[in-house]
Every structure is written in C-alpha cells, then in structure tokens.
Amino acid sequence: MxxxxxxxxSHSLKKPPSFHLSYLPSSSSSSSSxxxxxxxxxxxxxxxxxxxxLAARLCQKVQKALLQSDVQSKNDKSPVTVADYGSQALVxxxxxxxxxxxxxxxxxxxxxxxxxDGAQETVERIxxxxxxxxxxxxxxxxxxxxxxxxxxxxxxxxxxxxxxxHWVLDPIDGTKGFLRxxxxxxxxxxxxxxxxxxxxxxxxxxxxxxxxxxxxxSPDNEVGCLFFxxxxxxxxxxxxxxxxAVKVQVTAVENPEEASFFESYEAAHSMHDLSxxxxxxxxxxxxxxxxxxxxxxxxxxxxxxxxxxxFPHKGYREKIWDHAAGCIVVTEAGGVxxxxxxxxxxxxRGKYLDLDTGIIVTNxxxxxxLFNAVRESIKEKAASL
Length: 385
Ligand SMILES: Nc1ncnc2c1ncn2[C@@H]1O[C@H](COP(=O)(O)OS(=O)(=O)O)[C@@H](OP(=O)(O)O)[C@H]1O
Ligand SMILES: [Mg+2]
Ligand SMILES: [Mg+2]
Ligand SMILES: [Mg+2]
Hints:
Its cofactor is Mg(2+). By secondary structure, this protein is an alpha/beta fold. The protein has helices at residues 42-68, 78-98, 120-137, 146-154, 175-180, 272-282, 295-301, 324-331, 367-384, and strands at residues 3-8, 20-25, 34-39, 105-107, 165-173, 185-192, 195-207, 223-230, 235-239, 246-248, 261-263, 289-290, 307-310, 335-339, 359-363.
C-alpha cells in the first residue's frame, strides 16, 4: 500500500485540531495505491456548536413560557411544535450561513402542516422566535420572512445516504420531556461518506454535574450542557453559557454490580421489562435511570451511568436523527454503541437505521457481558410469549 498524498484541510481553532485519517481508493492508474486523507471538521464543528446553542436558547425561552402558563394544558402540543420548528429553522439558517457549500440536511420536521389553512399565526410566532434569536446573537444582519422560515425548515428534506456530506438534525429530541419540563436535547451531527464525523448535543436541562445517584449536585444546581465530539478528537462538554470545555470519558466500571443503566422515560419507546431482565442477568443492583432524549448519551459519555438500553416495541423503525449525535458523543468518549446483534449502527442508508431489535451502549469492558445478557434475555422473552 503506497501513500500518494496527505491533505490537511485548513481550520481555525484555539484547541489543537484533531485529524481523522481515512483511506480512499486512489484515482491513479495503480490499482493497489491508496490515498490517505487527513480531515479536520473544525469549521463544521464550530458552526454546529453555534447552531445548536442558539437553538437551545430558543427552546429554553419557549419551555419557560410553557411552564409558566397555566392556560395551556400539558397535552397542548402547539408550543412544542413552535419550538421544534423554530429550532429546525434556526439551525438550518445558521449552518447555511456558516457552511454554504453543498448544503444537505436530514431533519425531523417539515413545513407541510404549517402551510395548511389556519396555520398562519403559528408560522408568524415561529418567525418571530427565529428572528429574535438571530438579533440577540448579532452575527447576521438579516430578518427572515415567514416564507424564508418555511424554506429553512424544508431544507431538512434531504434523504442522506452513503455519498457526500449531510447534516442530521433532531431540533428537539424528547418532545415529551420538553412538555413535562424535563430533559430534551437539540441533536446535530454531520455524516461524511455515510459515517458520523461530528456530533453536538445541547441539553438545556441537564445538570452540569453527574446525575448518577452518587454524583454531587453542583452548588446552584446549574443546568445546561453542550456535548461535542469530532471523529478521532475525543468528546468534550461545556456549559451552554459558553464557559470552557472539559474532556469527558465514559465510566471505567467493570463490575456490573456497580453499574447503573439508562433507558427511555416513556415505556412506549422502549421495553422496560426486557431491560430489567437484562439488568437482572448482569447483576446490576441500581434501579434504572429514566430520562428523555439523547441526554442519555450525553450523561453516559461523562460516566454518569454505565449502560443505555433501548428496545423499541415491534414494528418501530429508528431514525438516524435520534442517534447520530449521541452515538459519536459516546464512542469518542471511549464507549461502544451497537444494535442487539452487536453490529455498529449504520447511518449510511438514508433516514432510517436498519437494526436488529434494539440499541445497546456501554464501555468496552462491560460490552461482552452486556451482549451475552442481551442475547439470553431476548431468547428468554421470545420463549415466554
Ligand atoms: N414507539 C416508539 N418507539 C421508540 N422510539 C420512539 C417511538 N415513538 C417515538 N420515538 C422516538 O423516541 C424519541 C425520544 O427519545 P427517548 O425514547 O429516548 O425519550 S423519551 O423517554 O421517550 O422521552 C422521539 O424523539 P422526538 O420525536 O424527537 O421527541 C422519537 O423519535
Ligand atoms: Mg427524537
Ligand atoms: Mg424531535
Ligand atoms: Mg418528534
């Protein structure tokens, strides 16, 4: 194997950049030759952090108003919808401003319902939220029209895939948590050639210190975390208010008796009975920690818990925006993310993840034990049906 070329992409970062080495087939006539491309995604990462942080502020504002209002019932989805759409429009706008070339976004929401009769007032509310966010940031001297906002939302209609670069966005992950005033996340990742190369998770309600039972609460119970990871560069966490970042690592726990596990808050999203069977087989003593959204991946990346188990009910198809950012945040912190057959998640097949039964996440040491417990438990559960 010969090394034909080494290309470094320019960057601007205070922190030393990380480079991801990828082997590409050479275009030279020799079929055995290979090109090594050293990629840095620091410009894209900076744009993603900016977009997710601004969207987090927009969501915080809407959640605060929602919780203060005693008129809106908890089942009223409209404020959530406004925040989902606003977050998606804002992230799309910021990314297109910062990285205009070959823009492609795979995102959860679209403007179909907003273009129906009677939605004009909602669209105006979203537009005001987005413009207020742009104004308060101060870096872009523009005001978006309602049509600009609808177009920004619809720019998330890309199908993704294994070729080229695609942003992947969940503008609010954990909608139900958002409604309850609990955890939610703005989850943004970048795919390059079908692989996740960077991820950002803004978790506005996640405490800055550990949420594990043994963890110390920060003095003022401060909340608001921004996790970010670039392939080959590790995972970092910083407060959403912008103060400095620290490198994070998954837990080093090797004994399952000392491990704790995360799962969905909503039982409709994951089979809690299967998780408890797995935990029992492993010898896990602590009760499950149930929190909403990809905040689970963030918390796991800094060692708050050791395991994340997710087993959707039969027929549910996982979407890439529910896992792309979380996956790289955990793997760059030293963790392992696979499906229930032990295969890495494949983000290259469009909007959906094509996986076996569920998703399991833990550190390298615990994975073999966890994997065996998962296989046995799935078999046992099937036999009992
Ligand atoms: N039936 C079913 N099974 C599995 N997963 C589902 C299901 N329905 C929805 N979803 C997706 O779950 C996302 C929320 O993530 P979590 O399950 O981790 O959080 S929660 O505890 O439910 O709040 C949630 O993301 P958001 O829609 O962005 O909130 C959904 O994409
Ligand atoms: Mg989601
Ligand atoms: Mg969502
Ligand atoms: Mg949703």
